[in-house]
Amino acid sequence: MPPTRRRVIALFALAAVVAAGLVVHLVLPSSAATDIAGDALYTVAIYAGVVVVLPRLRPFFVGLTAGGWSVAVELFQATGIPVELAEGFRPIALVLGTGFDARDLVVYLCAAVVAVGADVVVGRSLERGTGASRLLPRG
Fold first, then answer.
1. What is the dihedral of CA 82, 88, 91, 94, to 10 degrees?
2. Is 78 within the bounds of a domain?
3. Which domain holds residue 59?
4. Closest CA to 66 of 127, 126, 9, 10
5. Full 3-state SS string of the chain
6. Has residue 90 been placed in a domain?
7. What is the signed CA dihedral for 117, 6, 54, 112, rounded to 10 degrees?
8. pTM for this one?
9. N or C: which terminal CB in the chain sees fewer CB atoms within 10 Å?
């Protein structure tokens, strides 16, 4: 898929994922399901952000980057530093989280795999020129 096209799709996906993440975090009642959804959306947002910045990067490597970043942030939470930072500036908790949970590691990796799969499927669909792909820029 041409880089410009992939970047545009990723930008729209990023906006939708961030909006969904804010709804999950701010509107829905806190539960295990919303925690898992938020974690998955976090990794997908990282994935989309990497594609916006590096649209030529292959999906596998974007997935490694998004999953690796998410796991690194989760492990950083085990230090307690993100909690201290969030006490001084609450929005940082949306980026760094606050508490380590081993389950999150699995969620991040699964979300990265799903994002890679979605990227590959959308890319192949666009290469064939099916569906709404005719509405997107060609370059």
1. 10
2. no
3. 3-67+104-130
4. 10
5. CCHHHHHHHHHHHHHHHHHHHHHHHHCCCCCHHHHHHHHHHHHHHHHHHHHHHCCCCCHHHHHHHHHHHHHHHHHHHCCCHHHHHHHHCCCHHHHHCCCCCHHHHHHHHHHHHHHHHHHHHHHHHHHHCCHHHHHCCCC
6. no
7. -20
8. 0.87
9. C
Give the residue carrying structure tokens 């952000």.
49
Return the structure tokens found at 137.
Answer: 């820029």
Question: Is 38 among the domain residues?
Answer: yes
Q: Tell me the residue length of the chain.
A: 139
Per the CB < 8 A criterion, the answer to whether 106 and 35 are in contact is no
